[in-house]
Design a protein that fits this description.
By secondary structure, the chain is an alpha/beta fold. About 45% of the residues lie in helices and about 15% in strands. The chain has one domain: 3-Layer(aba) Sandwich (Rossmann fold), CATH 3.40.50. Strand 4 (about 90-95), helix 4 (about 100-105) and strand 5 form a beta-alpha-beta unit.
Length: about 160
């Protein structure tokens, strides 16, 4: 199953990103890259054309395919066309909360996931209680030898000495 993401729709659902931020697309791409690495699958995101944004010539992350709709077209149109022209639309999950787009791609056989639901997937997994206890125990049992302290002082010590 591959994800095809309505970029600006998703940004609008992220509590710490804003569509008024000039770097909102890049920030979303960075998050998608982290998620793609976690699930070990590439993602595709489509953005509406911006008023002054010029997309980079080379994508920074090969696991996130970024497309900007051409002027006069919308991301919704690009996404709907990709689903319609896909060899097997059933292998695509479109991420959007746009009801019209969701209806269009469902007719073609694609699955739809609401942007709000996808936002929850982007969050790193919460550590289990057992993992938290192990981490706390590891932090509590730190033993540093006097040789290590002296070496650290030599490397990072006060310059005034």
């Amino acid at each position: 199953m591959s994800y095809l993401i309505d970029g600006h729709n998703l940004i609008g659902k992220l509590p710490d990103l804003s569509l008024s931020d000039p770097d909102d697309e890049q920030k979303l791409i960075e998050r998608l890259h982290i998620y793609a690495q976690r699930i070990r699958r590439p993602l595709a995101v489509v953005f509406d054309p911006g008023s002054g944004y010029v997309p980079p010539h080379r994508p920074r992350h090969g696991d996130v395919k970024v497309t900007y709709a051409q002027r006069g077209r919308t991301a919704d149109q690009v996404i709907a066309n990709r689903v319609r022209n896909a060899r097997n639309a059933r292998e695509i999950t479109v991420v959007t909360s746009d009801r019209e787009l969701a209806g269009r791609v469902r007719v073609e056989g694609a699955a739809v996931m609401g942007s709000e639901e996808f936002v929850r997937l982007l969050r790193p997994a919460e550590p289990t209680r057992e993992e938290e206890e192990m981490e706390a125990e590891a932090r509590a049992n730190v033993n540093v030898s006097s040789d290590e302290v002296n070496e650290w002082l030599r490397i990072f010590g006060d310059e005034k000495r």
